[in-house]
Write a structure and sequence with these properties.
The chain has a two-stranded antiparallel sheet with strand order 1-2. With 88 residues, the protein is mainly alpha-helical. The protein has two domains: 53 residues, no CATH class; 34 residues. Helices cover 51% and strands 11% of the residues. The termini are far apart.
Length: 88
């Protein structure tokens, strides 16, 4: 299935945002008659308001894995410390 054949597309190559190289906007049909300058200005405002990209699910999983690994190591260290201190 082919989608978007009749869509007006606005591509911003210089986003001036450290996270994004370029941005592509699909203009709603009811705004396709608006001037290109006004559409570009609106697109630039959206880019300026964009923060860093959201973490992917795998990024969140990696953080959770790291946190759990560090927690496990900490608890293991405490247990070993208690055992050694009670032996001596």
């Amino acid at each position: 299935m082919i989608k978007g054949v009749n869509k007006q597309v606005l591509e911003i190559m210089e986003t001036q945002n450290g996270f994004f190289e370029k941005a592509i906007f699909f203009v709603k049909p009811e705004y396709s008659g608006m001037s290109e300058g006004r559409l570009r200005e609106s697109a630039r405002k959206e880019i300026e308001n964009a923060g860093r990209p959201p973490l992917t699910k795998s990024g969140k999983r990696e953080k959770i894995k790291t946190f759990l690994s560090l927690g496990t190591a900490l608890v293991t260290g405490i247990i070993i410390g208690v055992i050694f201190s009670s032996v001596m």
